[in-house]
Amino acid sequence: MMKANKKALLVISALMTAALMGGCGQAKIGYIDAERVIKEAPQIKALDEEGSQKYQEAVQEAEQKLKENPNMSQEEAQKAQMDAQRKLQGINQSYALQMRQKLDVALGEISRDEKLDAVVQNVPEQPVAVSGCIDITEKTIEKLQ
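Given the sequence above, the corresponding structure tokens read:
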């Protein structure tokens, strides 16, 4: 089932790319190396570091609660664990959303300036953008100073 989904996704992706390229003229596509943006763009890097710090603090807080109450019932321990998991998920989602919003604003501005039809994320190990695309990683990092 998983292989069928991957094949279907590849076919759909190829058809969408062909449709973009075959439309009225050629589509102008930009790409970013998201790993570089996270490591090098100060606004994104700061959010990533702050989120990681908040996450670690929440983990330590949860561990401390368990140590302070070694005699809690199994039900209480499960509840504490579920509460901690919810808090950790909330932290992850909150910081991921903040990073996404900042990135969307920067990419929107760059897309307008460069008259790009689409922007894709390019991972060096599995590149999506092979040729005919514009690398906007540096411009994105500059926008997120």
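The two ends are 44 Å apart (CA to CA). Try to locate this feature in the token string yourself.
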